[in-house]
Amino acid sequence: MVILRKRQSPGAVAGCFFLFFFLFCGCQSEETPVPEPDPDPEPGEEQIANQWIEETMRRYYLWEEDIPQKENLDFTQDATSFFFSLLTDKDGKTRTNGHYYYSSINPKSNTSTRSYMGNGYSFGFEFQYYYISSLRKYALLVLYVLPGSPAENAGMKRGDWVMEINQAPVPGDTEALLKLLDTTSPVTQTFGIASRPGLPVSNTIQLTAATVEDNPVFLHKIIPYGGRRIAYLVYNHFTAGPTDTTDDELFNNTLREVFRWFKTEKPDEFILDLRYNGGGLVSSAQLLATMLAPASALDDVFCRLTYNKRNNSYSDRTLNLDSKYMKQGAAGENLDLSRLYVITSSRTASASEAVINGLDPYMDVILTGEQTEGKNVGSVTFDDERFEWELHPIVSRLSNKNGFSDYENGFPPDIPCEEPDTVTYYELGDEREFMLNTVLKHLAGETRGVTLRPTDNKLTLLPLGHSLDRRKTNAVILDH
Fold first, then answer.
1. What is the DSSP letter of 296?
2. Nearest-CA neighbor of 173 among 227, 116, 131?
3. Where do the structural domains in the chain lie, given as residue ranges?
4. For residue 26, what is the enclosing H or E element?
5. Fewest CB within 10 angstroms: 384, 427, 462, 470, which?
């Protein structure tokens, strides 16, 4: 820029004016060249990952027709935001705090999202997280403790209330709580235990996180009651084996062995406890249903899987109650039942509901507990070695032999009851345990007008979360 500082004479100014005018006119007589546009910049790694995400979702997503048009997508977003921008509200549930999608995306290195407790280090217990408004405190109610875990070895039991962690009150921030409880190393934490939330801490235990085998066959037994022999099974997730893959059959073989034992015990009735079972592999659900079904239903339809109509590698298919499937690795046995009692909760979901729906055409399935979640869909895992992400989109809808799949709102219980909050918790399998006891009394012909367990009215409990929500079984996991 030229800055004029001297006063110019009139002649000089006029000369400059004409010179400027001449130059200006001369320039205007020529075409002003238009600069060539810069070539498109090379897409960054994140944009390439988003392109892969979009291509995968358009090909396999159950509701692919609801994905926004490509020109309306922002490929510069981070991968997680971009993934969720593709989803429809048909995917998942709308709740008071927003919409919860069943489809998910996770970093491959993420160990906090798990299909079961055995994927890494754990203290070995599952819990319900509460805010106790009358006490202005947060607490954890222990729901069950894994056999052989640090928690069991230290004496923690179902019904304990964790009121302190490391001599401090249980944090009211979920992320802070998970940092204490979800660990990738053998850290040690101190837990202050009370028998009830309104009482002072009566026991302090130290737990060092360890790798724990979380076998889904948590408990099995025969209960003599009312002149009958009743088989009882607590099954907590549909996982084939410790490596969480379909070719690892260790846990499935345990299930087969348990049913072979049940067969020798000749039970009159069967109670299947799925209150803590949020789902998992459809192949494990198929195995369980095959061993529970009437013998006349073997090799008939268990469930049908319906995919989107695009030309992808998946086509609609049918899974049967396959009699051959019982014989893989261990000699499983079909119990030839005509009636099945299932204990349910609001977290009974996906593969658990597939078992309920798949057996319903063949036998009397009686639900005891709470209304189930309502996940009638299946997911598949996709990954690419170029990217750090793992996709778990919903790709299929499940229906039973009769074509029924309309249980988006869950299955309502035939015998409503729910776990207590502050009254005595008995161990799972104890005949006094409230939900089990409710079924036993129904089997014995005892009817009751009120089936909800009373709670301590002096305490107001607000549920904030559940440790089972950390599991990645957001839908039936399909075996492909």
1. G
2. 131
3. 46-101, 217-378+392-454+473-477
4. helix 10-28
5. 462
For residue 252, give the amino acid letter. Answer: N
Distance, CA of 9 to chain centre: 86
Which residue, 342, 392, 419, is CA-closest to 115? 392
| Residue listed under structure tokens 């409990």 | 461
Domain 217-378+392-454+473-477, CATH number (from 3.30.499.10, 3.10.310.10, 3.90.226.10, 2.30.40.10): 3.90.226.10
CA distance 72 to 446: 61
